[in-house]
Specification:
The structure is a single chain. This protein is α+β, with helices and mostly antiparallel strands. The chain is 24% helix and 34% strand. It contains five helices and nine strands. Strands 1, 2, 3, 4, 5, 6, 7, 8 and 9 form a nine-stranded antiparallel β-sheet that branches. Strand 8 and strand 9 form a beta hairpin. Helix 4 (130-138) crosses helix 5. The longest helix is centred in the last third of the chain and has 14 residues, at 148-161.
Length: 215
C-alpha cells in the first residue's frame, strides 16, 4: 500500500547545541556524540556514508565502516581498485556523513583521503575473521561479474587452499584510507525545525573557527 510521506512527521527534542558549551576541538564533540550513540546498541553503529566525486562527474555515496578515529583523522578500509579507490586517486576530496537517528544528530565531515601505511593495513587485516580475509582476495570489487557462482567458486577454492593455514596475506590492492578533516558540521534536531547547525572549520594547524548556520 502506498504511504503518504507528506504526513510523516518527527518532533526533534533530544538535545541542543549552545556555543558557550562547545569544546575547542571538533573531535571532542564527535567523541561525545559517538559514545552517546553507542549506548543505543544500534546495528553497525560505526557506519558512515562516504561520498566521492565519480570519474563521470556524478557524486557517489556508499556506506563504509569507521575503524579508527583520532584528533586528526578517520580511518576506513577498502579495495584500492574499487570505484571509490579510483575516484579517491583522481580526487582525494571526500565527505563523510554520520546519521544517528536515535539521538537526532548528524555529523558531516569534509576532508582529504590518503592511504595509510602498508604496515598499518596489514596489521588490521590480520585482525579480521578468516572468511573476511579470504573474501578480500575473492572479490574484484566494483568489476562486472557473470554471476554469484563466480564468487562462490573462488571462495571455495581459496578456503580449501587455506584450510590448514590461517596466515592469509593482505592483498596489495586492499588497505586503509585516512580522511584528514578540514570542516565539520554538527546537526542537532530541534523543535519547529529550528535545528542547531554548528560548523568547525580549520583555519590553521589544530585551530578551528566555530560558527552557526541557519537551519
Amino acid at each position: 500500500m502506498k504511504k503518504n510521506l507528506f504526513d510523516v512527521r518527527e518532533n526533534y527534542a533530544h538535545g541542543e547545541l549552545i556555543e558557550n558549551q562547545l569544546p575547542d576541538h571538533p573531535v571532542k564533540l564527535f567523541d561525545l556524540w559517538f559514545n552517546e550513540f553507542q549506548k543505543f546498541n544500534a546495528y553497525d553503529f560505526n557506519a558512515m556514508t562516504l561520498s566521492t566525486l565519480g570519474l563521470d562527474g556524478y557524486p557517489k555515496s556508499r556506506q563504509v565502516l569507521l575503524k579508527e578515529y583520532s584528533a586528526d583523522s578517520f580511518v576506513f578500509f577498502t579495495n584500492y581498485n574499487s570505484d571509490k579507490g579510483k575516484e579517491i586517486a583522481a580526487n582525494p576530496r571526500v565527505s563523510l556523513l554520520f546519521y544517528w537517528a536515535q539521538t537526532e544528530r548528524q555529523v558531516r565531515v569534509l576532508g582529504e583521503a590518503v592511504k595509510i601505511s602498508r604496515e598499518e593495513s596489514e596489521t588490521y587485516f590480520r585482525t579480521r575473521p578468516k572468511e573476511s580475509r579470504i573474501g578480500a582476495h575473492v572479490s574484484p570489487q566494483s568489476s562486472v561479474i557473470e554471476s554469484r557462482d563466480f564468487l562462490m567458486e573462488r571462495f571455495k577454492k581459496l578456503s580449501e587452499m587455506y584450510a590448514q593455514n590461517d596466515d592469509i596475506p593482505c592483498p596489495e590492492s586492499w588497505g586503509g584510507y585516512r580522511v584528514v578533516p578540514m570542516r565539520f558540521e554538527f546537526w542537532q534536531g530541534r523543535p519547529s525545525r529550528l535545528h542547531d547547525r554548528i560548523v568547525y572549520e580549520k583555519v590553521q594547524t589544530d585551530h578551528w573557527k566555530i560558527y552557526r548556520l541557519a537551519p
